[in-house]
Amino acid sequence: MSKAMISIKNLTTYYGEKRILSSVNLEITEGERMVILGASGCGKTTMLRHLMGLVKPRDGSIFVDGTDICGLSEDGLDQVRLKMGVLFQSAALFNSMTVGDNVAMPLREHTSLNEKVIQIMTRMKLEQVGLAGFENLRPGELSGGMKKRAGLARAMAMDPRILLFDEPSAGLDPIVADGIDNLILKISKAFKTTMVVVTHDLKSAFKIADRITLLYKGEILISGSPEELKKNPDARIRNFLDGRAAEEEIDTTAYLERLLS
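Predicted structure:
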């Protein structure tokens, strides 16, 4: 049985007085592709920020490969982050650097490898994402899909045990987005990397997920296989999967009074 690579226990988060996550419990096993789904504002990006150690919770624990990161110093967090690679929504490439230098940067920052080895590893990572021969271009010369691929190559530079994805298909046309999904599956099968993918793209989620966790107003509605989600009769789950807004009572008079005040 696979061990838990990430274990979230009773995670509760507030921004000011607004509760974002409420007693979230979730385990992600080694090598698993976990997709975090939910509408805007449900807390899925906050959860990703917690996994990176960028946000401290009000309560609860997050264990990454057995280490509770919530109480770590910044130096301790940096050691855990070396086990992670992150593909940001915008790819977050440095425009002043070539593609090759963007990918090589983690190796130069965190290893003592000589430059010749770094160059070889950089070319290997770019080849793995379908960008062989593009190392001398600047990010501004790449298409949106190519930027995502370059960002993924950089995320993989240190051969991390965990890959985190923030909306990997956002801003891409359906064909390019499907290519990114295929690349995620290819990397997962080749390297057995634990993956956490935050998205609102249902087609992408159902294609790449081993398991899907659906957040609703900061709580987990369900965490299960894609088939389990499809079969679940809960109206809130059905509304989300069918793209329908939940019916809620609205005090029209009060709303108009606030609008005109």
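Summary: The chain is about 40% helix and 25% strand.
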